[in-house]
Specification:
This protein has about 130 residues and is mostly beta strands. It has no helices and eight strands. It has strands spanning about 1-5, 20-30, 35-45, 50-65, 70-75, 90-100, 105-110, 115-125.
Amino acid sequence: GMSKHFDYSNGPPADRRNEINTGLGLTCQLKGIGNWRDEIEGGFYKNSHFTNSFYAAYGLCYPINKVLLAGLRNMVATGYPSDSYQTGLVAGPLPTVKLELGSAISLNLSFIPKRNAIVLANLGYRF
């Protein structure tokens, strides 16, 4: 997957250097809760501070139609400077849209709503 910062202010914040963050993860589909689908995910990526981050997430999505699902992913990630976050961890819920492109390919788009909005994109292949 990858993420991209979208900053519409007058110049980049001083603490951010890497605008596109790439990585790799593994997702496991769970049994679901009623009509809701749930999954867990873990992986790593190169964060905005050029540091390796490891993450874990739990996602819960509701099917809107055969292709589109919407919901939340709760995520925690390591590798952030301790002057920005006391623990070096970031965590929180992310609004998510999932597109199922056939039986084997999916695309998750998650959004971190802040001043320099970040969109996380995860392309998945089911095997």
